[in-house]
Write a structure and sequence with these properties.
This protein is mostly helical. Helix 1 packs across helix 2.
Length: 123
């Protein structure tokens, strides 16, 4: 009996949800409990100078994403409550929305213009 490759990729994707949800919930814990803002609104690996201002937004993004991923894992592995298409759609949309929201927050926190503004001498 040969297993279609779609099932293998589905299992790989399902198993990848474990570390993804762990890292997102760990970031939430670090921001909320430990007050560590070193991973807030990153751009090129660096937090903004006022990271504490954007910490609640980053925490909310990570918390919602992590809870949804854990919910998908519990629904699929614990209760078999979701069909294959449903849990893949939920997990995929959550993954992309979280990544895009974190990216947008990082760009908002660091500003959109150039880092050093050049002043022209008008003489």
């Amino acid at each position: 009996m040969q297993l279609p490759s779609v099932f293998i990729f589905n299992w790989i994707f399902l198993l990848a949800l474990f570390p993804v949800s762990f890292f997102w919930l760990r970031r939430t814990y670090r921001i909320l409990v430990k007050r560590d803002f070193s991973e807030v609104a990153l751009k090129k690996g660096l937090p903004p100078p006022n990271a504490e201002k954007y910490a609640p937004y980053e925490m909310a993004i990570n918390l919602v994403g992590g809870v949804v991923m854990v919910g998908v894992l519990v629904a699929v592995l614990g209760f078999q409550a979701l069909s294959s298409e449903d849990w893949i759609a939920i997990a995929g949309v959550t993954l992309w929305v979280k990544l895009l929201a974190s990216f947008a927050l990082g760009r908002q926190a660091h500003g959109l213009g150039p880092k050093n503004k050049v002043k022209r001498d008008r003489t």
